[in-house]
Design brief:
Elements (H helix, E strand, L loop, with lengths): L8 H22 L8 H28 L7 H16 L4 H24 L5 H28 L2
Helix pairs in contact: 1-2, 1-5, 2-3, 2-4, 3-4, 4-5
């Protein structure tokens, strides 16, 4: 019996649904006329959503740790960094905020994948985080590049 790549189809679809706001951000940079709201409002919402997801990932690590899983009590402290970084992005211009989000998602993804390799988190979670980290970071990077090219 082979192990599933992720826990289930539901988990995979939910994770991809969580990526939709980032993908929408990319589409709206390319086609701003499609936005139902002012582009500045959507930019702030995009940073807010990224901050929210970084906080969520820290919460997942807290949950794993509270169940006796990966890490030590230091996990609780490190798990807060995503929330703080996300909050800081809300105070900054979009470009800098996106760079911080890319770094935050990348670091969190590395932490989760490394923990999976070491057997500290479920392997399916580590695989899911690998895929989603690449997808989100690539999308945020594409938003940065597209904004630069559109504004030339």
């Amino acid at each position: 019996m082979s192990l599933p790549i992720f826990w289930s189809r539901t988990v995979s679809l939910a994770a991809l649904a969580g990526w939709v706001p980032f993908a929408t951000g990319f589409v709206l940079v390319l086609f701003p006329g499609l936005s139902p709201v002012d582009p500045i409002i959507f930019e702030r919402a995009l940073l807010g959503y990224g901050a929210l997801i970084l906080s969520f990932l820290g919460g997942v690590r807290w949950g794993i740790r509270l169940q006796g899983g990966a890490g030590s009590d230091l996990t609780y402290i490190v798990g807060i960094f995503g929330s703080v970084a996300g909050f800081i992005t809300l105070l900054l211009p979009l470009t800098i905020g996106l760079i911080i989000l890319i770094a935050g998602f990348g670091i969190h993804g590395l932490w989760d994948v490394w923990s999976g390799i070491r057997g500290r988190v479920p392997p399916a979670y580590a695989r899911l985080r690998l895929v989603m980290t690449w997808l989100v970071c690539a999308t945020l990077l594409l938003i940065l590049i597209a904004r630069f090219l559109v504004n030339l």
